[in-house]
Specification:
Elements lengths: L6 H9 L4 H8 L3 H23 L2 E4 L2 E2 L4 H12 L7 E6 L5 E9 L2 E10 L6 E4 L2 H7 L35 H7 L1
Helix pairs in contact: 1-3, 2-3
């Protein structure tokens, strides 16, 4: 017997970040049935992700002039990441605030950065929620992620002069026979 969720419950789960497949497997409903009710919410999430990209990152000294997408593209370029393969998503958290996520791969690592997004008439603002998001909107995004300090060069030390020592205990067979 198939479990049924009300359309309102399906949409609430999708709005909170669940995928159609997750809701279908949790509820026991067919994915096609869940998809009918999820579609408008998935569009809403996509629109929120687009708006978050146009938001201005909030830094210690206030909102940046550049948008989030501009800052992230520069940071990706400076670090050698491929922005074209990154994926944006958004959902509402338990408090009703929008959370924007950027997911990307760097080598074999899967990475994600999260921001809270507050829309307004001027594009809105985004605040980093984790270290990855903070690093991406940092004004010094071109610096390496790990701090490397230079290794001090030691003063050249002269090699000691070794005098050639003759070991008289080492004799050849000719020496042995000549003394006998």
């Amino acid at each position: 017997m198939e479990s049924t969720l009300r359309p309102k419950d399906i949409q609430a789960r999708i709005r909170a970040g669940a995928s159609v497949e997750q809701v279908a497997s949790e509820s026991g409903m067919a994915a096609s049935r869940v998809e009918r009710f999820a579609y408008p919410v998935l569009l809403e999430r996509s629109r929120a992700a687009d708006l978050a990209q146009k938001g201005h990152p909030v830094r210690e000294n206030g909102p940046a002039v550049m948008t989030l997408v501009e800052v992230v593209q520069l940071a990706f370029r400076a670090r050698g990441h491929n922005y074209e393969q990154a994926e944006w998503d958004a959902w509402k958290d338990e408090h009703g605030h929008w959370v924007a996520q950027l997911a990307w791969k760097a080598g074999r690592s899967s990475n994600a950065a999260h921001w809270t997004f507050l829309p307004d008439a001027h594009g809105g603002t985004v605040k980093p929620m984790d270290k990855a998001a903070t690093d991406l909107v940092d004004p010094d995004f071109g610096r390496p992620l790990r701090g490397l300090s230079p290794v001090p060069v030691a003063a050249a030390v002269e090699a000691p002069v070794v005098a050639e020592v003759v070991d008289e205990s080492q004799h050849t067979l000719d020496d042995y026979y000549s003394s006998a």
